[in-house]
Amino acid sequence: MSFWEIFLFVVNVLVFIYAVTIALAYFILAVISVVEMRRYIRRNKFVDYKMILASPFAPGISLIAPAYNEGLTIIDNVKSLLSIQYNNYEVIIINDGSKDDTIAKLIPAFDLIKVDYDYQATLAAKPVRGIYKSQNKAFQKLLVVDKENGGKADALNVGLNISKKDLVACIDVDCIIEPDALLKMVKPFLDQPNVIASGGVVRIANSCVVEEGRLIEVKLPESLLARMQVLEYIRAFLLGRMAWSRLNGLLLISGAFGLFKREIAVRAGGYNHNTVGEDMELVVRMRRYMHERDKQYRVAYIPDPLCWTEAPSNTTILGRQRNRWARGTFETLKIHRKLFFNPRYGLMGMVSYPFWFFFEYLSPFIEFSGLLFFAFLTVMGKVNWEFFLALSLAVYCFAIFMSMFALFAEEISFFKYTHKRDILKMIGVALLEPIWFHPRVVWWSLKGNVDLIKGKKSWGEMTRQGFVQYRKKEKQAA
Amino acid sequence: MSWFSDLFKSLTPEERIFVWIAFICLMGAVLFILFLLISRSAKNWREEKAQRYQMDFQESINELIFSEDNSSGALLEKLKAIAGQSYAAKQVLIDQIMSLKKSLSGVAVQNLERAYREINLHAHSLSKLKQGSWSVKVAGMNELAEMNYVDAKESIKPFLQNTKYVLRDEAFMALLKLDRDSSYSFLDDYRASVSYWMRMRIHHHLSHIDKRNLPDFTKWFSSSNVDVALFSISMARHFRQLAAAPALVSLLHDSDKRKVALAVSTLGDLEAFEHAEELISRIDFYWEDAKLSRRIAISLGKLCNSDSQWAWLQKYLTHPDYAVRFEAARAIHQSGKQFPKQAPDMELLIRHVQEPLLRAS
Description:
- The structure holds two protein chains of two kinds.
- Chain A is an alpha/beta fold.
- Chain A has 16 helices and twelve strands.
- In chain A, helix 1 (about 5-45) packs parallel to helix 13.
- The longest helix of chain A is centred in the first third of the chain and has 41 residues, at about 5-45.
- Chain B is mainly α.
- The chains are: A alpha/beta, B mainly alpha.
- The interface between A and B is large, with 55 and 49 residues.
């Protein structure tokens, strides 16, 4: 056997082992997710969430929403947050040194006035310029903080410092939160005292009908790029995170909407300023904090679609988002590298962290090197075309299978896309996604890692069309 | 197909494995697609069927609600005949009766409960308790409790010791609803936990019954099940059982800090002025515990009524924990008392608690 043949054999075996392991892992997670989701639905079938509204036992919740240059939609967004169904809650808007008229618009719209607030900087953050309360009783739940720009993590830490409630919900101000979202998110905390955080499913709201910050009708996005992301989100949220929650190994709660025990979040050190993946990093750190003190804990997950966000509808913005996600993942994994196959951290160290490392972080590298290797073999005239086609066919069919599994999970659970033609459209998307969308995601992830090596720390400009704006335009046209 | 067969035979074993994987995945995907398409039609079909049954039942139920005992026989027979057609029909009728019952009261409710028994729908619900699926059992318990079928108590009781918490909780709630004599005796030997969610549900239920029928919750303050004790203290707190105050005072010396914390808050909420001194006597003992000190400060704010007692509350203004100082300052401000001469770093805190717009936070 020549060196070349041994080399080829080793590469083939390694690729085969990796492919089989990743496919099996995703399949097992999908099965656990579907079983767990069914159980969740059956368990909560008779639950009267409205009861929480009137109960004196309902824990207090602070909704913390950082805003940076949100002048265009801030008024509607805040009104939407103030109309959430929950009794014992406050809304804390953090104006993170916006360069636009965000604060100038908020002050008259909500009749705000600067108050003498004894601000305690328990978590280090950029200086606070002023704290405002509304003089109008209708907005008494609202508190606005104006601070110097320090990024999302910094703004959230100010919110954690200000909050006086037991639970804090960290949200993106431009997301649409379902009216009953807090009622559902708080339930795991009521069921089990050891829950330290809970996350919900984030769905894509492009092309959905939105009025006054409320989702009126769910529609499939018109743009193909957004549709691809719908499928991707369903797969990630319904087939992945539900299973991790069941195994108590969930490492990520989306920054768009998560509910945390304030005391644990603060004791763990709050949000980290030095990463763009602050949402994942906080969850991992809170888990480590509990684990290192031998305290029982759970990170819960709600499969109900509670938060709707606008997905990037052009490749430039989407590229920036995925670039940031890749950097955030690496930064978090690097900060918490101590967990890697560390039995002291139980399932988190032995399964969750390695899964993220090998199958989330490394997979773009492995996919890309596979392509490079294929190109190299083609140039050398060493390609075994039958092998290549058989492998590609298997990978492609597995990708379609997993997408169909995700659509199946959606159908048996929350059934949001009710039109029959939506299913046909999504089937088309599933056929196209592995060859049209996925390669780009891989490319953006690689670029993110290159940018990380270059020292890039910024979030990247995220331009949004804005739902409220969209609806108003529609009204004006009518 | 011979070309395919020839092609397949020409592949190496590894390549054949890949082709098989592709085939299995593709078949799986096709099955999912078929399921998606069929499930939509099945959902529509089931909904239409349920609607048909609902329409069949509605007229008779409307008449039944306001009927006299002797005139309802024919209506019940009619409902029984339709409900007897299938399992689904029985379920639709039960759901319809339960849903109607929620918005009615008095004789109408009694008529619906009687119809539930006389059409033998309770047998349908009881049969659910024997099924394997826990969610069906839960549905059965829920129906029996909502329809006030008291004879089901003995069938439900064993579920109180079930290992599945959903079944335990539902059994607890069902027995609570069916407990006509309000003895709540099942609490005496309840061994499982009582979550906040359960406390919420129980409180919700008890809020809707005659307050004179509430039990004296102090009898469970010393329950060997800490959860039952905590639950009882919180019920005494929310239903303002003033007679519980002496029992609460003895809990201030309990070794379980959760009980102490709840007892402290309850004494404050019950405005047990006569026990302010007992609370004050624990200040030094719990000084290091910021959470308990905070609760004591809040409660003292409600209980203090002499200068010597206020002086104790003012002591908390020097507590190392900010939250304790804050609550003490707020309590002093709310009582209208003067703040003692402060160190300069207290100024902003005092201005904060004095700010009317921040009163709620």
